Amino acid sequence: xxxxxxxxxxxxxxxxxxxLHLFSSHAASxxxxxxxxxxxxxxxxxxxxxxxxxIEGLRIRxxxxxxxxxxxxxPTRSGRWQAGQDARRQMTWWTAGQQVRCRxxxxxxxxxxxxxxxxxxxxxxxxxxxxxxxxxFVKYSQNYLAQQTRAKAARRGIWAASCQxxxxxxxxxxxxxxxxxxxxxxxxxxxxxxxxIYHMPWSPWYGRTRIQPDKGERWFCNERQARAAGxxxxx
Length: 235
What we know:
By secondary structure, the protein is an alpha+beta fold. Helix content is 29%, strand content 26%. Helix 4 packs parallel to helix 5. The two termini are 26 Å apart. The relative contact order is 0.14.
């Protein structure tokens, strides 16, 4: 089943509003099999990063997993591994030319959709962890501990390198730049030819982005503030 005509909402970065629209449309159009059934979104997917997809204009965070950030590099015995980029490439390979089906199970603390996503019989959430390209996000979910145990035992991906877990990597990057950012607000609101986008401290473009307040660009203290002001996440 496919949810359509929400691209305008999501393009403006209003994920919370988009979800309200989706759930309303779901109920009104009779797409569910009965009251209480989860919302299903399906269609071709754009890969934002390894654990974030966009379908029909809605960004969906894969529930229960946390992949290396796009700019995250992990030391190995033979050098340095572009962990975030490799994880993203694998997700792109799995979803290319496929109809991706996501069961939306809720929203995270930032208002983003959380989903369990599939291509045919492939469970994308589970396979990402099984391949050693994401951690089980145990702070919020215990769903993929078995896959993580097998990946760790086989020393696949992140388990063969000295990778800092993604949530610690983000926390450290945030702490590192907050002390130098105006008023301690490290999110960069950049205006480009593609519109207003914001960069988190762990974005691969963060260091190359210069904020020019005289051109309407600005700093944000958190993602909710950036989204409410009309900026959308980079990617």
